[in-house]
Amino acid sequence: MLATFAHGLIDIHNVCCIWPKIYVLSHNLCTILRIPHNTSALEEHFKDDDEGPVSTQGYMPYLNMCILNKIQANFDFNELNKMCWTLSAPKHISGKHLLISGVDAFKVWCIFNYLSEDKYPLQIVIEELEYFLRKLFAAMGCSWNEGRFEDYKMHLSAKKKHLNAWELIELIGMGHFTKGINPQTLSMGINEVYRELVMDVIKQGYMMKKGHKRKNWTERWFELHLNYMSYYVSEDLIEQKGCISLDRNCCVESLPDKDGKKNLFIIKCVEKSFEISASDKKTKQEWIQGIKHLYTKQGLSSPHRESRQKRRELRNRIKAEKETMESRMRQLQLANESKQAQLEAMNKEASSRGDLEEQRRLQTQIELLDQYRRDLAQEKMARMQMEEQVVEKANEVEQYWQRMQELEDMYRQLKKALDDERQAKEDEEALSKLQARLLQQEASKRLELEQIHLQQQEILTQSQKEKQELERERAEKERALQAAQEQLEILRRQREGAQEEYKVVTKKLERAANKTKTWKHKVFKHEGLLQIIQPGNKSPTRMTNWGQAAFTETELDELERIWQENKNRSHDAQ
Q: Tens of pLDDT along 338-363?
C-alpha cells in the first residue's frame, strides 16, 4: 500500500533537493499523515551522509522507516495523493496538450499507483496495462480492439515492457486508444474505473431512502464499499448525508411493497434500520446480494486487490520459472564450452606424441569426440526441449489468463443467472398466489352468477305475468282508441258542418258590410244629414259642425277629397 505513494514522493524529493526544503517536506508529510515529526531522527539519518538530502537513495530509507511505517491503518490517503500530485504533475505534464482534464489525469495517476509493481521506481507492466484498458473500455461501453493492442504491445516490447506514470497519462490523454470517443464519455469511464479500483466502490447508484424523523422518501446517491455503505445528495459526492457501517451484526432483508413504494429492502443495524426503495427488482437483488456478500466476509480485502495480488503472484512465478530455465541453459552452455576446451587440449597433446601412441590416442579421442558429439546432441535436444517447455509455459500462462477472463465472465453470467432464477422463483410464487386469488375470485363470481341466474329466472317469470297484463291493457287501450277515433270522426263531421255555417255567416256579414258602405257613401254625399256612429280610436279628436269626434281622420280626408273634386268641377263649369 505505502509503495504506491513513493512515485509522487520521489518527484517531490527531486524538487526539494536542498536541506531546508527536505526539512519542510518531511514536516508537511508528517502533518498530512497525522504523525509526530521527529526532527532529531531526520538530522541523525543524514549527519554522516553528505549526499543524503540531495539523493533519492538517501531520503527514501528515512521516508520508509520514520514516516510511512508510522501511518495508521485507517488513514485516508486522498490528501497525500493530492499533495504529491500538486507538487509533481506540473513538472511532467504542463507542456503537453492532453485531451483529458487535470482531474482525469490525476485519477489515471492514482490508478497507475494502484496497478504498478510494488518496487522502486514504480512501473506498470503490459499485463496490468491491458487490464486497465479493458476495464476502461468496458466502463465506456466500447468494444475492445485486440489487434490494435497487440500491435502496440509488440512496439512496446521492442523498446521496453513497462510504462511509468507520465507515459500512461500521455497514452490515455493523447487518445492513442480512445480516438473518436466523446471526451465526456472518456471522463466518465476514467471516473468509474477510479472509483472501482482506487476508492473500492463495489456498487453505486440512485435509490430512495425513508427518513428517520419525518418518514418522507428522498432520492440519494448510494455507494457500497468494503466495510460500509455511504449515501450523498447527488453523484457529485459534495454533500454526504450518512454512512451505514456493515459488520456481522447487520442484516439485509427484502420487504413487501407498501405506501406506494416498490422494490423495498431494509438494512438492520444495531442502532437503527434503513428502509430503501430500488428502481427495479433486478437492482434490488443486486444490492441485497452485494451487501450480504460483504458482511459475511469481514476482515478480507476487496475482490480487486485479491485479483491484483493473484496476477502479481502469477507473474512472479512465471518469472522465477523463466530465470530457472535460463540458469540451466547457462550451465549447459558452460559445460559444453569446458568439454570443447578439453577436446582441443587432448588434440594438441595427441599431435606431439608418437604415431602408435598417436593412433591409439586418436582412436580414444575419436571415441571421446563421438561421445562428446552425442552429449552435445543430447544437450541440444535438452535445450530444444527446454525451449519448447518455455513456449509451452508461455502458452499455459496465456491460456491461464484467458481462463481467468472466461471464469470472470462465467462468474458474472452465473451471478446474473442466479439473480434471474431467484427473480423467476419470486415471480412464480407471486403468480401462484395470483392464481389462487383468481380461483377464489372465480368461485365467488360463479356463486354470484348462479344467484344472478336464479334472479333472472324469477324476473322472466314475473316479466311473463307483466307481459300478459300489458297485453290486456293494450287490448283495452285499443278498444278505447277505437272509441276515441269514432268520437273524433263525429267531431270532424261536426267541425265540417260548423265550417259551412261559418262560411254562410261570413257571406251574410260581407253583404251587410257592403250595404253599410253604400249607405255611408250616400251619407257622405249629403254632408252631415246623418252620422253613423262607429267605434272610434283614442287619437286626438277634431271639432266639426256636427260636434266633437263626429268623423274620423280617414272620413275627414275622404270628405275633403270629395269637396275638392266638387269645387273643381264647379270651377270648370263656370
A: 877 887 777 776 666 556 676 777 77
Contact between 227 and 236 (Cβ < 8 Å): no
Distance between CA atoms of residues 240 and 230, nearest Å: 8
Has residue 258 got a pLDDT over 50? yes
DSSP summary character for residue 240: E
- % of the chain residues with pLDDT over 90: 5
CA distance 262 to 254: 11
Residue 170 in 3-state DSSP? helix
Q: Distance between the two ends of the chain, CA-based, in angstroms?
A: 156
Among 42-51, 99-108, 284-293, the minimum mean pLDDT is found in 42-51
Evaluate the CA torsion angle 321, 325, 330, 332 in order and state its sign.
Answer: positive
- Name the 3-class secondary structure at 208: strand
Q: Kindly tell me the sign of the dihedral angle through the C-alpha atoms of 186, 191, 192, 197.
A: positive
d(CA 224, CA 507): 115
3-class state of residue 436 by DSSP: helix
Torsion of CA 27, 28, 33, 34, to 10 degrees: 60
Residue bearing cell 254562410: 504
Query: In percent, how much of the chain has pLDDT > 70?
Result: 82
pLDDT at residue 543 is higher than 60: no
What distance separates the 2 farthest-apart alpha carbons in the chain? 212
H or E stretch including 231? strand 228-232
Whether the per-residue pLDDT at 53 is higher than 50: the answer is no
Q: Whose grid coordinates read 430500488?
A: 278
